[in-house]
Amino acid sequence: xxxxxxxxxxxxxxxxxxxxxxxxxxxxxxxxxxxxxxxxxxxxxxxxxxxxxxxxxxxxxxxxxxxxxxxxxxxxxxxxxxxxxxxxxxxxxxxxxxxxxxxxxxxxxxxxxxxxxxxxxxxxxxxxxxxxxxxxxxxxxxxxxxxxxxxxxxxxxxxxxxxxxxxxxxxxxxxxxxxxxxxxxxxxxxxxxxxxxxxxxxxxxxxxxxxxxxxxxxxxxxxxxxxxxxxxxxxxxxxxxxxxxxxxxxxxxxxxxxxxxxxxxxxxxxxxxxxxxxxxxxxxxxxxxxxxxxxxxxxxxxxxxxxxxxxxxxxxxxxxxxxxxxxxxxxxxxxxxxxxxxxxxxxxxxxxxxxxxxxxxxxxxxxxxxxxxxxxxxxxxxxxxxxxxxxxxxx
Length: 395
Ligand SMILES: *Cc1c(COP(=O)(O)O)cnc(C)c1O
Hints:
Layout (H helix, E strand, L loop, with lengths): L8 E3 L8 H7 L9 H18 L4 E6 L2 H12 L5 E5 L3 H12 L3 E5 L9 H9 L6 E7 L1 E2 L4 E2 L2 H10 L5 E5 L11 H4 L3 E5 L10 E6 L1 H6 L30 H17 L1 H22 L5 E3 L11 E6 L5 H12 L1 E5 L8 E5 L6 H17 L8 H12 L3
Parallel strand pairs: 1-13, 3-4, 3-5, 5-8, 8-9
Antiparallel strand pairs: 2-10, 6-7, 9-10, 11-12, 12-14, 13-14
Helix pairs in contact: 1-9, 2-9, 5-6, 9-10, 10-12, 10-13, 11-12, 12-13
This protein binds pyridoxal-5'-phosphate (PLP).
Pyridoxal-5'-phosphate binds next to helix 3 and strand 6.
């Protein structure tokens, strides 16, 4: 006997819950690849993505997951043998660097532990040491979904420039776009990449790249350009050229709907919703941590992301079994640890199409699980979350 019947709730950091409106927008027959309505959707989505990324630059939509956007960013502005610097604050930054290595780039890493954000001073010092200006690009992940860290992108770009360095700055916003502020132009970011299945509330399968002027200036000479990712080719006049082939029609109808939802709510409100609900999660977790079996992975509170919270769980309490209990017995899918944290952590995501009952329900289930599985914890975590929202949601 379980209490899991009914709708299953996802609190994994992608894919996230898809709104019914988006599902409905996609439930339709295929159309001609030159269909005027579809062509208009491409144009308006590319324009609205500029708003979402905070840029006047160009935006590209790829039929690919986030890894595709990583490859697109590298391929469009770099050449074989170029040096790049990865700010290695977590598993995703490291993986992007490994991809670059396979693309024949010379990958340098600014190593650090995965419990802290990137230190902008260390970035400045590392770039000052590159006196010959060999480093062509700096890669950084805004929210690393494994560790739960948020990096201060504005400060990192400022550090690159304070070093008098003109490397391109590429930012992975896959887990931060439409959950935390992303201000590409204000911050001086040259390329930002993102994906569909996190804050944008879509199925996996689309990814996005936004490119500023400096990125475009580097593009013509880039030796790694390939037919599929190439920005220039995607400026072709015919609609399929924007996708290097058949447009991902249904995902585009979904994208139009999700962008409408985000813009109608207002980006400020979207970000504030994530701020409030993530703070509620952190208050609950902080309470549970009091008994010593659980711990925040990210040590400094201000470095914890508003999109996902990574909680270390003493291995004696079997985090994988804990996840199974939440899903199989209670209908909530909690994220597990990945990479070095596999079998050692839980990840509670709070990104995308989330509201109070979703998050409070998930917290209630996690707390229920702590009781059911005899994991020592401070009591009343979910109550703390309720009180916080009660005091901070305008009545
Ligand atoms: C999910 C995620 C990715 C990978 O995206 P895929 O769509 O799985 O390729 C990359 N970076 C970050 C920060 C992510 O959260």
